[in-house]
Write a structure and sequence with these properties.
- The complex is a heterodimer of chains A (439) and B (321).
- In chain A, strands 1, 2, 3, 4, 5, 16, 17, 18 and 19 form a nine-stranded mixed β-sheet that branches.
- The longest helix of chain A is centred in the middle third of the chain and has 18 residues, at 206-223.
- Chain A has twelve helices and 19 strands.
- Chain A is an alpha/beta fold and 439 residues long.
- Chain A has two domains: 5-48 and 374-432, Urease, subunit C, domain 1, CATH 2.30.40; 52-360, TIM Barrel (Alpha-Beta Barrel), CATH 3.20.20.140.
- Chain A is globular.
- In chain A, strand 6 (53-58), helix 1 and strand 7 form a beta-alpha-beta unit.
- With 321 residues, chain B is an alpha/beta fold.
- In chain B, the strands form two sheets. In chain B, strands 7-6-5-8-9 form a five-stranded parallel β-sheet.
- Helices cover 39% and strands 14% of the residues of chain B.
- Chain B contains twelve helices and nine strands.
- Chain B folds into two domains: 12-134 and 294-309, Rossmann fold, CATH 3.40.50; 136-291, Rossmann fold, CATH 3.40.50.
- Chain B has helices at 12-28, 53-65, 86-96, 110-116, 135-150, 174-185, 214-219, 233-236, 243-250, 254-258, 280-284, 290-309, and strands spanning 43-48, 69-74, 100-105, 123-129, 163-167, 189-193, 208-211, 224-227, 265-267.
- Chain B is globular.
- In chain B, helix 1 packs across helix 12.
- The chains are: A alpha/beta (439), B alpha/beta (321).
- Chain A binds chain B through residues 189, 192-194, 196-203, 205, 269-270, 272, 311-312, 314-319, and chain B through 8, 78-80, 85-87, 105-110, 112-113, 116-117, 129-133, 174, 177, 200-206.
Chain lengths: 439, 321
């Protein structure tokens, strides 16, 4: 049995203060002036209470790349960022393209105890884009996989993409596409535009993303399937999704925090912390994805948390790995780019960072509203503070954050996962796996 | 001057200083004893991750004529997976006491990474990085144009009003980029001529005009025509259909060269593909500066090494030159 908790004075979705009683992993009662004898009291006066955040796009690196991250370290980073569930991308070694690997990931997540780990399965065997992986076996495994992606690679062959979209209908699955035409991006190092022209870095043109998204929404329409577009990054992509939704196509889209804030101007110093795929784009694109997220064209924010060891970043740009860690900073970046600019309310943030990703990923027990009888997945956020983002705030194994040294608003103070405190007043609770295992 | 990483951030005053010091260096090179004691006891490392005999021996000659000790370090295979990392190489050179590192690298930005990473305290000279910049090549080109135009009266003068046409694979050319910035800073009017496939997708912020027709550019009677080396592997990547079509459309053959005004010069950074981007008639004509560029290259690199190693470390501008 987990300890009973009373959260006092939390502002639900940024609105009125209330107390929340949590018992047995469930919200037992919400309202003013709750008292409970044996409960641990969490003073949340003035803190914004959000449903536990859900990340549809995380790279946990295990199995295979434990030098970068493990499921334990990655979920500790998740807890530090206010996340109670993360979807693990399948580009591990071995690739998560079989029931065995996804069940292993699920078990490791349960053993770690910091967040729910929901594996994403590969669309094709080895993410090679040639033959469908055993999608049904993964769906029917204990991991109950519903999201499939070759993230890192595009499912480029239109026939394979069509078949995948069709096939997953039998169990309500969704294909999450990494939209990147591989021919148009051979050797690509950064966004193609004025900055790449000056820096002499091979360009990654917006059209390489947009043409795949355009193709995929038409395929999804044709076969009547559900499509999810990963890390959309350009103004043109927003327009295509907007058009597709208007047309009634069953498509959802995500944007990363870094594409909401950072531009390709940052590449000028050749600091590989800013190397990411899809690349940082122009100011116009940043503004367009913010608008797209505000008007609902883009459904969710997902981190694309991509840890890399320092040797893969402290090198010449061309040799550096793509990717940024993002779990610990995501909510703060959304706060800065969307809430402080009056584009989203906290209610909207709860939608784009919790309810909608859980719905798209068909993950039960997450993204539910803060109400009696619901699972107690809660994030308490202090929106009144601001500070420089430092390595002290990183809890994963890698430090490749583009925000280090940057001023960000807010602080995640408490994270509660299924009634268990994983982050207590800004500090990670230690040894949760052992403790929860014993219960 | 702390480092020389690019010409994009090189201001007019600093550029002219290098060119004027190069004039002084050039004067010493007509003496019977060419060697100066200036950099005695300093160590210059030529760190070449990419083969370039021409550039390396030019830097080597420059350093030796200033009495510096020269270490040539040919480091092939630069990525993390293929061998020693840039960081480890840099720290090795630091441990050996290098005062200046002249780096040639296939990755754009590698010199800046070397200079700003904190791995090394030596001054860094970019000797060509990927498709980014090749600042000493642009400096020797500017020096050559100025020398041809003003002769012994060159000191202190910029290139105001000089029309320069740069022809060829601008997209992949570090020489073109460095020349665009430097020549513009010095007041020259720069025109790029190329196939549309070989111009970067967005040059709207470059201080240049882009033409697709070489004949149109030559009809304006430019003061200098700079031919870039075309790399044949571009053909397979569909940048242009064939060697012959490229040569016919953008090559400087004898007929085209003959249309130029009498005092116009023809430049090429070398090595040339004779018969492809430049004909032998054009390359060997009196208007060709190909060999002068090589000679001037030594003087310009002497000037850069001198300013890097003998000049004030904390100059009044307080930034990377």
């Amino acid at each position: 049995m987990t300890e009973a908790l009373v959260i006092t004075g939390a502002r639900l979705l940024g609105n009125d203060g209330a107390d929340i009683l949590i018992r047995d992993g469930v919200i037992a009662e919400i309202g003013p002036g709750i008292s409970h004898n044996d409960a641990r009291v969490i003073d949340a006066d003035g803190l914004v209470a959000l449903p536990g955040l859900v990340d549809l796009h995380t790279h946990l690196r295990e199995p295979g790349y434990e030098a970068s991250e493990t499921i334990l370290t990655g979920t500790r980073a998740a807890a530090a960022g206010g996340f109670t569930a993360v979807f693990a991308m399948p580009n591990t070694s071995p690739v998560a393209d079989s029931a065995g690997v996804v069940e292993q990931e699920l078990a490791l997540g349960e053993a770690a105890g910091y967040a729910t780990v929901q594996p994403i399965g590969a669309v094709t065997i080895g993410q090679k884009g040639e033959r469908l992986a055993e999608l049904g076996a993964m769906a029917n495994s204990r991991a109950e996989v519903r999201v499939f992606s070759d993230d890192g690679f595009c499912v480029f062959d239109p026939l394979i993409m069509r078949r995948a979209l069709e096939y997953v209908k039998s169990f309500g699955g969704v294909i999450a596409q990494h939209a990147q035409d591989p021919r148009l991006t051979e050797g690509a190092q950064m966004n193609e535009g004025a900055v790449s022209a000056e820096l002499g870095l091979a360009g990654w043109p917006a059209v390489a993303e947009e043409s795949i998204i355009a193709r995929d929404v038409l395929l999804a329409e044709h076969v009547g399937s559900r499509l999810h577009v990963c890390h959309l990054s350009t103004a043109g992509s927003v327009d295509i999704i907007r058009w597709a939704k208007k047309r009634g196509i069953d498509v959802t889209a995500e944007v990363t925090p870094h594409h909401l804030l950072l531009t390709d101007d940052l590449v000028r110093g050749y600091d590989a912390r800013y190397k990411v795929n899809p690349p940082l784009r122009r100011e116009e694109d940043v503004l367009a994805v913010r608008e797209g997220l505000a008007d609902g064209t883009i459904d969710i924010v997902a981190t694309d948390h991509a840890p890399h060891p320092s040797e893969n970043k402290a090198c010449e740009w061309q040799a550096a790995a793509n990717g940024m860690v993002g779990l610990e900073s995501a909510l703060r970046v959304v706060h800065q780019t969307m809430v402080q600019t009056d584009r989203l309310s906290w209610t909207d943030v709860a939608r784009v960072m919790s309810a909608a990703p859980a719905r798209i990923g068909m993950l039960a027990g997450h993204g539910t509203e803060l109400a009696a009888g619901r699972p107690a997945n809660i994030t308490l956020y202090d929106q009144s503070v601001a500070g420089e983002f430092t390595t002290a705030e990183l809890h994963g194994r890698s430090e490749n954050s583009p925000y280090l040294g940057r001023e960000l608003p807010g602080q995640v103070r408490w994270t509660i996962h299924q009634g268990v405190v994983t982050l207590a007043d800004g500090e990670i609770v230690e040894d949760l796996g052992a403790r929860r295992g014993a219960e | 001057m702390r480092h020389l990483l690019d010409t994009k951030t090189l201001d007019r005053e600093s550029a002219l200083r290098i060119l004027d010091v190069a004039e002084d260096m050039s004067d010493t090179q007509s003496r019977e004893v060419k060697k100066l004691p200036t950099l005695r006891g300093k160590t210059v490392v030529n760190l070449f991750f990419e083969d370039s005999t021409r550039t390396r021996i030019s830097f080597e000659a420059a350093a030796k004529r200033l009495s510096a000790d020269v270490i040539n370090f040919a480091a092939k295979g630069s990525s993390v997976s293929k061998g020693e990392s840039l960081k480890d190489t840099a720290q090795t050179l630091q441990a050996m006491g290098a005062d200046a590192v002249v780096i040639r690298h296939s990755a754009s930005g590698a010199p800046r990474t070397l200079a700003t990473s904190g791995w090394i305290s030596a001054g860094v000279v970019n000797a060509g990085d990927g498709t980014h910049e090749h600042p000493t090549q642009a400096l020797l080109d500017a020096y050559t144009i100025r020398k041809r135009r003003f002769g012994a009266d060159s000191r202190g003068r910029d290139l105001a009003g000089v029309c320069v046409v740069i022809v060829g694979d601008v997209l992949h050319s570090r020489v073109a980029r460095s020349n665009v910035w430097l020549l513009s800073t010095l007041g020259a009017e720069v025109t790029l001529v190329s196939a549309p496939t070989l111009v970067p997708q967005n040059v709207s912020q470059w201080p240049v005009r882009v033409l697709y027709s070489l004949d149109e550019a030559l009809a304006e009677g430019p003061d200098a025509v700079m031919m870039l080396r075309i790399q044949l592997e571009r053909m397979s990547a569909a940048y242009f259909p064939s060697e012959r079509e490229y040569s016919r459309t953008w090559g400087l053959d004898a007929v085209r060269a003959a249309t130029l005004p009498g005092d116009s010069i023809v430049m090429h950074p070398g090595p040339m593909n004779r018969g492809l981007e430049i004909s032998s008639e054009a390359a060997d004509s009196p208007r060709s500066t190909v060999l002068e560029q090589v000679t001037n290259g030594v003087s310009v690199r002497m000037a850069v090494l001198y300013l890097l190693l003998a000049g004030e470390r904390n100059d009044e501008r307080g930034r990377d030159l």
